[in-house]
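Title: Prediction job returns without error message
Component: structure pipeline
Severity: low
Priority: P3
Assignee: unassigned

Description:
Job completed but the reporter wants confirmation the result is attached to the right record. Sequence as submitted:
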Amino acid sequence: MFGVTLAIAAAAASAACGGSPHPTRSPTTAAARPPSAACEHDAHLLADDAVHILVHYGGETYPADVSFLSFRDTLAGFRSEGCPREALGRALARRMGQAERAKLLSHLPAAIARYVRDAVLAAGSTG
């Protein structure tokens, strides 16, 4: 009995600590906001994740994989919702300088890096 209780407690702690650095947006929350607000929200979350990727690839706290997986999953939702890539580009330009964005692109898989680079350019920022 003690082993089962311990396993349940460990699973709960893991779920509470090991997930995304921000809460997942529920479908009802997304439906309650106009698409542009949902897109801006996701773009902000993506910019947060991008910053966390750089911090964690620099050897701070936990591995960058958690931030990358959150970035990848949020980006998939952002794209499937038909959000304009310019929203992502603006959010990244607000949160990161050109050198930081270039470093971010170097850590991303090629297809994601192309989309992010195009988003920043579409927003009128450089690289």
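Comment from assignee: result matches the submitted record. The two ends are 57 Å apart (CA to CA).
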